[in-house]
Structure formats: structure tokens, C-alpha cells
Fold these 2 entries.
Entry 1:
Amino acid sequence: MHEPNHSRIALPDEAATAAFAVRLARTLRPGLVIYLRGNLGAGKTTLVRALLQALGFAGRVKSPTYTLVERYEAGGLHLRHFDLYRFRDAEEWESSGFRDEFDGCNICLVEWPEQATGLLPPADVSLTFEILQDGREVLLHAYTDAGQQCLNALPPDIPRLAAVAALRIRRDRHQLGAYLAGAGLHRASRWNRNNPSATTCSPSRIRNVW
Ligand SMILES: Nc1ncnc2c1ncn2[C@@H]1O[C@H](COP(=O)(O)OP(=O)(O)OP(=O)(O)O)[C@@H](O)[C@H]1O
Ligand SMILES: [Mg+2]
């Protein structure tokens, strides 16, 4: 990797977190492993929830606090949302099939990765959330070429994306579509639907993604 492999983004309020999620959703590719770090209440689940909504997922996004993992299909992608805060038993890694979830196809978003050190595959990207007096800050770090490509592909942080995210929070999908069309943008889910490599995941397709 020759480019700077980290950056920092201010997230003054929840709408800013959602706007960041909209941008991040457009960069996701099958197989990415994304660690989500930060204290309790730092905003990790908020980010995942907004990310799934940006991909077009319309259902409820529960925190996997007790289930440890929740599974989603959205925008032609398979996503796994782990929260390993309560993960204790290393044998559960095999017996619950967690190892199998990291198959080079699923996008795995992992809260509290430090709870499964030595079991988890390494991250392509880590997002570290810090709680500030006003809002949050997120530090983005790429560890692999795939992770660097993901961060390089982040669309610019234009202020109106915050408005888009705010609309999204209100779950006014019709209004969001009209707004995006007016702004010359497209929902990530639409982009992924038009991207054949995002809809079916096999090793050969993964190689073609980039
Ligand atoms: N950028 C932000 N600025 C201010 N508040 C935020 C921001 N992002 C999220 N929040 C709020 O902070 C809280 C974050 O809760 P969330 O469940 O996302 O945290 P978490 O990091 O997943 O915690 P846990 O480790 O317990 O799972 C929510 O109440 C949310 O509304
Ligand atoms: Mg959480």
C-alpha cells in the first residue's frame, strides 16, 4: 500500500454518522472484514444500522448483543454483523459456525473484535469510534490492499449527504429517492444491483470485483 492508510472523520451528530454510512455503503465489496472499535455507546451499531439502510435493507436492525451475529442480504451483498462483547468460549467459534462466516464472500462487520483475538481473521479496515464532548469521531484504518481500495473509494463528504442521511433516519424512502435523483446521486443498493459482481459471490467473481 503506497497511499496514506488512515484518516479521521468528525461525526458531530447521528445524522453525520448516517451520512458517513451512506458513503461507506458505496465502497463495500464481498469478503471485506471490517472491525468496529470503540467504547460502549460509541456508535458502532448506529453505523451498521445506517449502512444496511443505505444498502436498501428495510427491516429492523437489532444489535447482536445476545445472538452475537445477525445476518443480512442487502444491495446484492451478504453481510454479517457481529457483536462479540459477550463472546467468551473459544470453542463456540467453531461450533456456532462463526469461522465459516468469514468465507471471502460475506462482508463481516465486527464489534468488539478484541474479544476473539486469535480466532478472527485479520481486518481489511478498522473503524475506531471515539466519544467526544460533542458527538463522535471515527478513525479509519486500512490494513490490506482491499481495505485501502475501500477507503480510496469513499465518495467525498459533501454536506448535502448529511441531509440525505437525515431523510433516511426519518425513513421517508420516497423522499430520499427523489432527493438523491435531484442531487445526481444513486442509492448504494441501486448501484450494487447494477454491479453484477456484487450480486453473486463466488471466488472467481470476487477476483473480478476490483
Ligand atoms: N455521531 C454521533 N453523535 C452523537 N451521538 C451519536 C452519534 N452516533 C451515534 N450516536 C448515539 O450514540 C449511541 C450509540 O449507540 P450504539 O448502540 O450505536 O453504540 P455501540 O458502539 O454499538 O455500543 P455497544 O458497544 O454497546 O454495542 C446511540 O444512542 C446513538 O443515537
Ligand atoms: Mg453495538
Note: The domain at 6-209 is CATH 3.40.50.300 (Rossmann fold).
Entry 2:
Amino acid sequence: MSLHNKPIPESPSSSKILPEICRRRFMTGTLGVGAGMILAPLFAGAQNAFAADAAKKVSDFVTKQPWVTLNDGRKMPQLGLGVWRLSSEEAKVSMIEALAYGYRSVDTAAIYRNEEAVGEAFRASGQKREDVFITTKVWNDEQGFDASQKALDKSLKRLGLDYVDLLLIHWPVPQQNLYSETWRAFIQMREKKLARSIGVSNFNEEQLKQIISETKVTPVLNQVQLHPYMQQRALRAVHDALGIYTQAWSPLAQGKVINDPVIGKIAEKHRKTAAQVVIRWHLQSRIIVIPRSSKPARVRENFDVFDFTLDAEDMKAIEGLDGKA
Ligand SMILES: NC(=O)c1ccc[n+]([C@@H]2O[C@H](COP(=O)([O-])OP(=O)(O)OC[C@H]3O[C@@H](n4cnc5c(N)ncnc54)[C@H](OP(=O)(O)O)[C@@H]3O)[C@@H](O)[C@H]2O)c1
């Protein structure tokens, strides 16, 4: 994790606030939240559910917060809040704002050292447990069959929760040669309902295929670095073939894509901000996305992406940015 934060100017629309009525509708869950759960067709087989999601038209993602159907049949919001590098206080402020504004998913990890804050923010929000999707990750030095189970126990204690919605192996660390047995422990933790869904992060094709062939259990998603400058097309094709969702970490390239002129032009066209265009591009590309901000106004801005659609020309222009440094 060698990426660096650069100071980023406050975005032009960061002071924009939804009208109070709309905000209340978000808070009471009557505006789009969980709509995908109602709209998504129910299929018996996990692969069928994934295929059904793949066949969804972009229009399904336009007006409402989309939820995706994972290959284990469970549902997850496609847009969530990331909290890496946020202090406990910042994580609490951002998450309380996020949950009030309509977010229903947060991505933390043991190594972020803010799981307590995530748990406190969840309780302060007044949301029901079943309405908020909480992800955490097992760090490299806690891999292994027993160690990873102890790691989840510790995470749950810090979060103050009985279960997490999604548990990820943070990095494969192949030199340790422990990710396979860690994956077997994850399957057990899922059976014990301590982790409702299980997945991985930063795995390559070979590592994915290895754990699947050894256990016959496919991760629900692989969380990888992905943004307009690093679009991970080959890996996304592998995920699609295996029935695994792609989740993007650093979707804003840590702020680097905000000043891109191509994105700026598209943002101007839609009267949205560059960050909103980039998040929208992820959503329309069927990628699960978890932008992070320490600033409540940007937390809101990053969720205000359900009232416009990128057209084919916009999508193509952003696709053309792949590989740009
Ligand atoms: N699995 C992994 O190995 C891994 C690795 C890295 C990250 N992640 C996860 O992915 C999440 C997101 O990635 P990330 O945190 O690296 O970076 P990111 O979401 O790509 O970018 C965050 C940066 O963008 C700025 N920003 C956010 N919204 C903005 C807006 N609307 N306008 C302008 N600037 C904006 C933030 O600054 P301000 O705070 O000042 O707004 C921050 O500096 C993490 O928080 C974490 O949950 C996972």
C-alpha cells in the first residue's frame, strides 16, 4: 500500500445538500434504499442470481441505490463508504453522515484500527443491524486456520457485533502460503454465521482458481485497486467467468482522477462533479465501489449519483483513460 494522499481542493458541489424532505426519505428508507432487494428477481441457484444481475440493464442502476446479488444469494449495496486512513473520530463522523444520507454499507479492516469507531457509529445511527452491510478484513499476520478465526473474534469484539456481513482475506501474501487454509477457516466462520458472506482482496486469477478448486467455495467478491486509470479488464473478465463480483478499492485513485480533463468535461456536461462521474462510471460498469472521505460534504456528494446516467460516449471516453499514470 504505497499510495499517497495529496491535498485536494474542496469540490465545487461539496456544500450541496439534498432538500430536507429527500433527506428524510433517505433516512426512513423510502427513497431507493434496498430497492434492488424488491426489484431483483429471485433465483434458486447462486450462479443464476449472478447471471441475472449481469443481465440487468444500466437503467436499473439509475434512479435508486442499487443492491447486487452475490453468488451466495445474499444482497449487498453497490455503493458504500471506505474508511481506510480515517482516524477513529473521522471514521465516526463520516459514517454517521453516510448512514443518515442513505449509505447502507461500510468497508473497514482490522489494520485500519477504526473498527471500534465503525461499531459506535453504527449504534449511534439508530439503524437496524440487518439494514447495514458491514465488511471487515483479516490482516496478513493473522492468516492461518486458527489465527484467522481468532482475528474475526477480535474484530467482532471491537465492532461490538455478533457477525459481519462480509469477511475478506486482505492480501493473499503467497510467500506465507497460508491463504488456502485461511479460506477453509473462512468457510467454517460462514457456517457458524459469524461472517454472513466471505470473499478476498488483492487476489490474482491463479490464487482465485486455487482456493475455488480446493474448497469448491467461490469468494463472493475480490476487492482490488481499480479506477479509471487502472481498469483491471483482464481480472474483471476472470471474475465474470467465475461468478465473482469486482469491488474497487481506491476508486477515486485517492483523488488523482478528480482533476482529469476528460472526466472534468463529462462532469460539466452532466452538471455533476468529477468524483460523481467516476463513481457513476463504476456503478454502470457493474463494479461495487467504496469511496472514502473524511469530509461530510464529500460523503454526501459521493452518494448523490443516482440522478444522472453516463451515455455510451462518456463511458467510452472514461474507458480510454485506462493505463494513464
Ligand atoms: N483491500 C485493500 O487492500 C484496500 C486498499 C486501499 C483501500 N481499500 C478500501 O477502499 C476504500 C477507498 O479507497 P481509498 O481510501 O484508498 O481512496 P479513494 O476513495 O480512491 O480516495 C479517497 C481520497 O479522495 C478524496 N475524496 C473523496 N471524495 C472526494 C470528492 N468528492 N472530491 C474530491 N476528493 C474526494 C479524499 O479526501 P478527503 O478525505 O479530504 O475528502 C481522499 O483523499 C478505502 O477507504 C478502504 O476501505 C482497500
Note: The CA atoms of residues 84 and 112 lie 6 Å apart.
